């Protein structure tokens, strides 16, 4: 009876050990806290899934304009991405064998203060980079623009030149977004899909930055002349419509409040440190209305 129980115990222990070994070989965790580059040459002998995780950082003033990104260097777009807050969550999504995230974006921003994990499914050789921008110039410019917009909202709401510049910017930006997407990747021939994809580009600054950089570097001369011509056409349209500041006081106040609201949004979204952004907004509004 003792030998039987001993054998049963050894059998259960062996099964548990085998299960643990199999599970431990299911994926390899790579925890990254700072700028890191990992090269991957996909091997048929390797079965474990590589999962890359950013540990996150603490909330401090130096993180006000910081950006953290996963960047994938690969020859083509033949890959899929899976994201989650933990390696277990990513591996669960990976094993579902679904389509994952599209491989269109090779640069993806991750949460600054929370752990973020990513796995890449591909048969191609690739490099994974964790890029840490201590001072993201785009965030600085966005916050500075918001502060200026709030500070000068009253004067700008009465300035004809500002209205013309806004009209030209809208014309160039809208046409350029369509052009960038047509050049960077052919669209399906459905108007609904056109609209959806363009809206995604508008709200995803990483995709905008990546595609604009591609177009500008590939067609620099064309980009210059295109921007110049579209700016002139937009100016003519604004002149033909007769854009000018409102005349009555209520309309001027409405425009001023809209500019201030846009400035508030620009400051808020200029940083992932929301508490610090909110403090800047409160300080600006207090200085504006309670000098």
TrEMBL record:
Localization: Nucleus inner membrane
Topology in the lipid bilayer: Multi-pass membrane protein
InterPro entries documented for this protein: NEMP_fam
Keywords per UniProt: Membrane, Nucleus, Signal, Transmembrane, Transmembrane helix
Segments passing through the bilayer: 140-156, 162-184, 191-208, 223-242, 254-271
Cellular component GO terms held in the UniProt record: nuclear inner membrane
Signal peptide range in chain numbering: 1-24
Similarity section: Belongs to the NEMP family.
PANTHER family the UniProt entry points to: AT07567P-RELATED (PTHR13598:SF1)
Record's protein name: Uncharacterized protein
């Amino acid at each position: 009876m003792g030998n039987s129980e001993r054998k049963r115990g050894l059998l259960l222990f062996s099964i548990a050990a085998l299960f643990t070994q199999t599970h431990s070989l299911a994926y390899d965790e790579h925890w990254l806290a700072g700028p890191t580059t990992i090269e991957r040459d996909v091997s048929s002998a390797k079965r474990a899934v590589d999962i890359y995780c950013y540990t996150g950082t603490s909330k401090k003033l130096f993180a006000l304009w910081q950006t953290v990104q996963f960047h994938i260097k690969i020859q083509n777009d033949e890959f899929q991405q899976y994201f989650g807050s933990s390696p277990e969550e990513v591996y669960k999504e990976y094993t579902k064998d679904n389509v994952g995230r599209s491989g269109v974006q090779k640069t993806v921003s991750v949460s600054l203060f929370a752990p973020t994990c990513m796995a890449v499914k591909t048969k191609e050789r690739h490099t994974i980079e964790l890029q840490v921008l201590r001072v993201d110039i785009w965030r600085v410019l966005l916050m500075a623009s918001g502060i200026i917009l709030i500070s000068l909202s009253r004067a700008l709401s009465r300035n004809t030149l500002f209205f013309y510049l806004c009209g030209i910017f809208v014309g160039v930006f809208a046409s350029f977004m369509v052009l960038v997407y047509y050049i960077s990747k052919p669209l399906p021939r459905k108007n609904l899909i056109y609209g959806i994809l363009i809206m995604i580009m508008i709200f995803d600054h990483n995709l905008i930055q990546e595609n604009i950089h591609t177009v500008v570097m590939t067609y620099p001369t064309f980009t210059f002349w295109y921007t110049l011509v579209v700016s002139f056409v937009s100016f003519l349209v604004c002149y033909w419509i007769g854009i000018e500041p409102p005349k009555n006081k209520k309309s001027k106040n409405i425009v001023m409040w809209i500019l201030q609201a846009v400035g508030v949004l620009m400051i808020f979204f200029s940083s992932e440190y929301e508490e610090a952004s909110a403090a800047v907004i409160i300080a600006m509004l207090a200085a504006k209305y309670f000098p």
